[in-house]
Amino acid sequence: MSHYCDLAPAHPFHGPYHDHEYGFPVDDDDTLFERLVLEINQAGLSWLTVLKKRAAFREAFEGFAVARVADYGEADRERLLADAGIIRNRRKVEAAIHNAGVIQALQADHGSFRAWLEHHHPLPHADWVRLFRRTFRFTGPEIVGEFLMSTGYLPGAHRDDCPVQARILAAGPAWARPGGNPGAGTSP
Asked: pLDDT by residue (tens digit) across 32-51?
């Protein structure tokens, strides 16, 4: 089976994501929210489809500003469902809006979405899945695993011999901290 590290380099969409984002720690809540929305939208589709639509998603969701998306009402839902540039799935659109509101509550309780993730880290993959299912909408094992891997909370984004892996380790992902690797996820 091919690994993302074999497929992504030099690809016009996968390459930049693989080389500069996938597996690196993320500090910004809006970026964490973006990753969660993109992973939710990947369900049933290829990651390439999502990456090709990423710019349209950023525009449609106003840069993934958590506070703005959390305030979306029916007119925004309809606008998103009519936007041919994004994935127009009602359950996924509603999950994004709902999850933005959840993240706002987590920010109020923990200071940030990132602080909430840190509060629960480390957990094995199965425990993360249970936690996400209790907290968010549209978050099954694959979505949760990819979200956590892509943001540095679970290992497995890159092979150990991938040149990007050394840069990720230098950036200090949560899974690489002492006691921070109780379970791995999967690759895109």
From this structure: 999 999 999 999 999 999 99
Question: 55: helix, coil or strand?
Answer: helix
- From the number of C-beta atoms within 10 Å of its C-beta (0-12, 13-18, 19+), residue 149 rates as buried
Residue-range domains of the chain with CATH: 4-176 (1.10.340.30)
- The string of pLDDT tens digits covering residues 64-90 is 999 999 999 999 999 999 999 999 999
pTM score? 0.94
Annotated binding site for Zn(2+): 5, 18
From 61, 115, 106, 117, select the one nearest 86 (Cα to Cα).
61
Q: Give me the active site residues, please.
A: 17, 39, 47
